[in-house]
């Protein structure tokens, strides 16, 4: 990163760069976790958990619910089931929340201890696992520990059913999952969105004909509506995946599904949930294009979370999309509308400015009136008057004309700061642009600022020039007349 020769210059290089970064993080994490003995000293203050090896050994040996929670958190399936059985034998009640977590763990891993994850694959490993037998999925076993614990429960809620149904679908017991859903309805319970999502994805596995598959999917969607269960993004994804196995019906129904998804996407997910998936998927699993980022902007705007734009801008920079003029201007437009985070947005605006000026050895973007206006407004909101003034000079250098509203905003900041000279300079700048609002600005400066005689004369000059009147000569040593005094000018400048 310090060597400009190695800095990425186009989208392909930026994609390779970000994926390499993510790969490096995964490799480092794997090395730390497989060799914890080399990372026993903690020099960080305060403690930074992500820099230390993950704890994988059990510390609590006594029979207690805390020990059960520890085994669940470490994904020790067999040990967690044994601890649960010991608690029941000792007559100790286990909370429903811990029971939910235990069922989730058993069903996720199909009642087996998970294999070590995040192990880098070598060529020998790839060749070794090419046989079909090595790819056989773990299948759901009849009366496994998940079903046994479920049947022992005195009360079963939707969350308990959800864990088993999801586990059954994940591990191939599709018909049993639908039977469990029927049992849920018979017990007068309402399914959650996770149950519907997995049942929709499993629909092609329990019906033979294409039309029967789609009828089952449509029936599940109708039941969602009847039970007032709101769909999420995974619901639409499950429908689209299932439609891939519905033959000729797929195209028509997929288009309808996509239209529904576009209409509901921005309101069905909370922005925090959207950002959680964004952080999980980008850039290691998904490299977003400009349109994907615009969709994210829309979600932020809908949820009034424009304060998060600086973090998204950093990603745009790292992904190499900061050379897309339309995308950059959209970021500025959204930031200019926010009223709650002036400091962070102003810092971000200055970074956006560096893109227009040209950095990282790349040519700058072309300044437009809107981009100049948005950056200047953001700087004024944060009271960064000097940087905002420098932006006004760019207007002049690039033959762009600032709006009357922007100049009025600048004058308001000058009034708050008590900066008389800056206000005078602002009027002179307005005159240089030959703006019709120059005389109005000059009158405001005369009325609201404590000016020197020289500054007052200059402002009266701009007012009278706009009215095609004449300014009379004066002496700085003479007494200071009132605004509109005939000794100074024709007096017309005092008229409204």
UniProtKB/TrEMBL annotation:
GO MF: ribosomal small subunit binding; rRNA binding
Keyword rRNA-binding set for record: yes
Annotated PROSITE patterns: PPR
InterPro entries: PPR_rpt, PTCD3, Rib_mS39_PPR, TPR-like_helical_dom_sf
Entry coiled-coil feature ranges: none
Gene Ontology terms: cellular component: mitochondrion; ribonucleoprotein complex; ribosome
Protein name per UniProt: Small ribosomal subunit protein mS39
PPR repeat ranges, renumbered to this chain: 157-191
Cellular compartment(s): Mitochondrion
Family: Belongs to the mitochondrion-specific ribosomal protein mS39 family.
Key words, A-Z: Mitochondrion, Repeat, Ribonucleoprotein, Ribosomal protein, RNA-binding, rRNA-binding, Transit peptide, Translation regulation
Source organism: Mastacembelus armatus
GO biological process: mitochondrial translation; regulation of translation
């Amino acid at each position: 990163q310090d060597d400009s020769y190695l800095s990425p210059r186009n989208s392909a290089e930026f994609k390779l760069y970000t994926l390499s970064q993510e790969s490096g993080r995964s490799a480092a994490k794997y090395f730390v976790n497989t060799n914890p003995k080399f990372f026993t000293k903690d020099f960080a203050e305060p403690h930074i958990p992500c820099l230390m090896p993950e704890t994988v050994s059990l510390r609590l040996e006594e029979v207690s619910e805390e020990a059960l929670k520890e085994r669940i958190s470490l994904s020790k399936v067999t040990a967690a089931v044994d601890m649960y059985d010991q608690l029941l034998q000792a007559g100790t009640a286990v909370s429903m929340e811990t029971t939910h977590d235990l069922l989730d763990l058993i069903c996720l891993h199909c009642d087996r201890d998970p294999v070590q994850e995040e192990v880098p694959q070598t060529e020998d490993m790839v060749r070794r696992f090419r046989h079909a037998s090595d790819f056989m999925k773990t299948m759901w076993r009849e009366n496994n520990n998940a079903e046994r614990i479920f049947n022992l429960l005195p009360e079963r809620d939707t969350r308990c059913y959800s864990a088993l149904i999801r586990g059954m679908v994940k591990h191939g017991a599709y018909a049993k999952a639908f039977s469990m859903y029927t049992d849920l309805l018979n017990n007068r319970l309402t399914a959650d969105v996770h149950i519907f999502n997995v049942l929709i994805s499993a629909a092609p596995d329990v019906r033979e004909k294409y039309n029967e598959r789609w009828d089952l999917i449509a029936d599940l969607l109708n039941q969602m509506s009847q039970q007032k269960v709101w769909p999420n993004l995974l619901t639409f994804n499950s429908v689209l995946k299932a439609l891939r196995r519905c033959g000729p019906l797929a195209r028509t129904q997929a288009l309808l599904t996509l239209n529904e998804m576009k209409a509901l996407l921005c309101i069905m997910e909370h922005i925090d949930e959207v950002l959680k998936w964004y952080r999980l998927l980008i850039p290691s699993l998904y490299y977003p294009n400009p349109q994907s980022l615009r969709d994210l902007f829309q979600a932020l705007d809908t949820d009034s979370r424009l304060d998060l734009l600086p973090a998204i801008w950093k990603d745009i920079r790292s992904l190499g999309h900061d050379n897309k003029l339309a995308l950059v201007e959209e970021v500025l437009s959204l930031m200019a509308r926010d009223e709650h985070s002036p400091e962070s947005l102003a810092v971000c605006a200055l970074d956006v400015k560096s893109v227009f000026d040209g950095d990282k050895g790349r040519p700058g973007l072309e300044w437009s009136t809107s981009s100049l206006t948005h950056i200047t407004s953001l700087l004024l909101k944060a009271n960064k008057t000097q940087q905002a003034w420098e932006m006004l000079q760019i207007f002049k250098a690039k033959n762009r004309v600032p709006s009357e509203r922007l100049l009025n905003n600048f004058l308001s900041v000058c009034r708050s700061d008590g900066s008389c000279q800056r206000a005078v300079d602002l009027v002179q700048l307005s005159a240089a642009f030959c703006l019709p609002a120059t005389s109005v600005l000059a009158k405001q400066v005369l009325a609201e600022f404590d000016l020197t005689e020289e500054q007052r004369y200059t402002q009266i000059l701009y007012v009278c020039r706009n009215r095609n009147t004449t300014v009379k000569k004066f002496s700085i040593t003479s007494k200071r007349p009132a605004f509109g005094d005939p000794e100074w000018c024709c007096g017309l400048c005092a008229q409204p």
